[in-house]
Specification:
This protein is an alpha+beta fold. The chain has eight helices and 14 strands. The protein has an eight-stranded mixed beta sheet with strand order 1-2-10-7-12-5-4-3. The protein has a four-stranded antiparallel beta sheet with strand order 6-11-8-9, with no helix packed on it. Strands 13-14 form a two-stranded antiparallel sheet. The termini are far apart.
């Protein structure tokens, strides 16, 4: 347990700009120690590493290899599975604009969304974030779908394990987030990401991924060895101070989302973060864990009092997510115009 050692720092960066994150070991038998370390991480930065999470290193390498296979396909093949209105499928470079106030155009990244698989004839598929996924043709990428579906299942279990520790850190029952209306029927979205190596320049509004907070409960991020992720612990500071988060082999980088900030009445913050490109290609895999569509996100009983009333109005998960996705993604009509 404890904080990450300085040995993981990259020799090419200014060490004063590195963020030292707490390390959460899911195999630690001392649950109180784990809860206390996670709570401190949530209060300090909203980011932490998770190790001994149960997903093998060999399988993680396979997932990354399959991700690279997809992104190296010709653009014509990738555009055949362009994302749909349910945010399933391929997102081209510049499709997403996360920080319109500071970006001159969209992010220098391409991605691929994979959600919870729900058949088209299932009544649940009428909900905004449920439905069938879009998949590359099996003859183009054999075994690709099976690998991603397995990873989706395994990452969900890791997310639920982290959710239990978060619940305990908020003085709730450990299974608080594991109810049917929450993570029992989650909106869980796997997103493969590829940064092409363009150089970011914040002074010119050029970013791999613009500054943003994540939308849901938590995000599990697996990365390759290429750095680029930065966090800003105090989003209201002028000027903002950005710190690098170094990759840690075998670990997930976990951060808190907006819904958890709302649930906790601002006790746990959803931390601003961004990605800067630095000449090198970079691959990462984000797993966004959100509650069910119909979950009402409102202030937790342990996070309010007469002197500390709720800061945020209750909101349905699907309404909040739909608004955030619509605000940050390009209108699909632009691609239809390009292809016509």
């Amino acid at each position: 347990m404890g904080k990450q050692s300085k040995e993981t720092k990259s020799p090419v960066s200014d060490p004063t700009k590195f963020s030292i994150l707490n390390l959460i070991d899911l195999s630690n038998p001392n649950i109180n120690q784990t809860v206390n370390s996670l709570k401190q991480a949530c209060l300090d930065s909203g980011f932490f590493y998770v190790v001994n999470h149960g997903i093998s290193e060999e399988f993680m390498e396979e997932v990354f290899a399959q991700s690279k296979r997809f992104f190296t396909l010709p653009m014509k093949e990738k555009m055949k599975i362009l994302r749909n209105e349910k945010h399933r499928g391929y997102t081209p470079v510049l499709d997403e604009l996360l920080d319109p106030e500071n970006q001159i155009h969209g992010d220098y990244k391409e991605g691929y969304y994979i959600g919870v698989e729900v058949a088209e004839d299932d009544p649940e598929s009428n909900k905004p974030f449920y439905g069938p996924n879009k998949w590359p043709a099996p003859d183009i990428l054999p075994g690709w779908r099976e690998t991603m579906e397995k990873y989706h299942r395994e990452a969900l279990e890791v997310g639920k394990a982290v959710g239990k520790i978060i619940a305990l850190a908020l003085d709730l029952d450990g299974d608080f987030f594991d109810k049917p209306e929450m993570l029992g029927e989650p909106i869980a979205t796997l997103r493969l990401l590829h940064y092409g190596g363009q150089i970011s320049d914040p002074t010119k509004g050029l970013f791999g991924a613009g500054a943003h907070t994540d939308y849901g409960l938590i995000t599990l991020l697996a990365t390759d060895e290429v750095s680029g992720l930065q966090i800003c612990k105090d989003r209201d500071a002028k000027p903002q101070k950005w710190e690098d988060v170094p990759p840690l082999k075998g670990a997930f980088i976990v951060n808190l989302g907006d819904m958890l900030e709302r649930w906790s009445n601002g006790v746990f913050k959803s931390t601003l973060h961004r990605v800067l490109g630095n000449h090198k290609e970079r691959y990462s895999i984000a797993y966004f864990l959100e509650p069910s569509h119909d979950c009402l996100v409102e202030c937790l009983p342990t996070c309010k009092s007469e002197t500390n009333p709720p800061k945020y109005p209750p909101i349905l998960c699907c309404d909040y997510l739909s608004q955030r996705y619509n605000d940050t993604h390009a209108d699909l009509k632009i691609y239809k115009k390009q292809q016509s």
